[in-house]
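Good morning,

Both structures are done.
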Amino acid sequence: MSQEDSEAGPLGQFLAEDHQRLDALLESAAAGTGQVNQNLYDQFRAGLLRHIGMEEKILFPAVQRWRGGEPLPMAAKLRLDHGALATLLMPTPTPAILATIRRLLMAHNVLEEAPGGVYDLCDQLAGSEAGSLLNDLRAAPSVAVMPHSDSPAVMTTLRRTLERAGYRMDEDSGRDVPVTPARES
C-alpha cells in the first residue's frame, strides 16, 4: 500500500484496495501463457461489474445526497467510463480488449484515487456516515454476468461507447489470444 493509500479515509482505502484486487486479477488472467485464463477473467469481470455497481448504486447517490442533490463534479465522466468498461466486458477478451481495459482503468482509477480525487471527496463528505456507507459497500451483492457476445451489434456499441467516453479500442495489440479454461489447482 502506498503512502497515499495509508492516508486515505475508510471509503477511499476500501475502494482503492478493490481496484488493486481487480488489477491483479486482470494481469493474472492474461499473464504469461499467451492465452487468457477464463476462470480468472470471469472473476475480474464479475468483480469489476460489482465495483461499478457499488459506485453507481451506493457511493454516487450518497455523495449526491450529501451535496444537497448536486452530483459529483466528475460524475458524468465517471459514468461514461463505467459504461465503456461494462461494454468492454461483453465480447470475448482479445489482446485489443485487454489493452483497452487496462488503459481505461489506469486513467479512470487516477480520477478516483488521486489526492483530492473522488474518493477523498467522498471520505470528506461522509462524516459520521462513513462507517454505515462502508458496510453498505462491503455488502454489495454479486452481479449476474451474461455470456460473452461477439456480435457485430456488440462491437458497434463498444466502439460508440468508447468514443463517447473519449477512448478508442487499442488496435495495436496483435492477434486474438485464445481463451482456455482454468486449470484446477
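Second structure follows.
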Amino acid sequence: MRWIVNADEAGTPDDGRRALLTAMITDEPERLRRRGISLGVSPDDADDVAQTALLRAWRSIEHLHAPEPGQMCSWLDTIARNAAVDLARVRSRRPADALEDDLPDTASVAGEVEMRVILDRALEAIRDLPQSQREPLLLTVVDQLSAPEIAERLNVAPATVRQRIARARKALATCRRAGMSESPVG
C-alpha cells in the first residue's frame, strides 16, 4: 500500500498537516499508547488502539480544522478515545475466554496422547484382521446387527458368523495383551 505523502497527490492543498502529525508521532511515539491506557484499555490492547487511532487520523487529516500542535493534540486524543470505545464495544459483544481455561493440564494431555496411541493401534489391529473376520466384527459392533442378519448379508450360516466374530475378538484380545503391538494379527 502506498501512502500519499504530499497533498498535491490527495487533491487538497498541503498546509503541513501530515508533516505535523508525523513529527508529533516521531517526537512522542508512545503518546497514543499511554492515552489508550489512561482511557482504561489494557496494556496488551493499547498498541492496537494507538495504531487504529493513528491510521484513522492519517486517513482523515483533511478534517482537522486548524493544523496547530495544540489543536492536533486534542483532535488526536478524541480519535484515540473513539478507538478505545470501539474496542470496548467489540470486546463486550465477543468476550474473550481466559487463556488458562483453554489450556488443558499436562496430565490430561499426556492421557489423551496415550489414549490416542492405543486407539490408533486398535484400529490398526482391526485393519490387520482378515476380511472374513473384520467384516462380521464391524457389522456386529458398529452396525449392531445380529448374527442371523449378518449371515443373511454375507450369505453364510449364523454359526459361521459367530465363529468369525469370536476369532476376531480373540485375535484382538491377544493383540491387547501384547500392548497393541504393531505385529500383524493372525
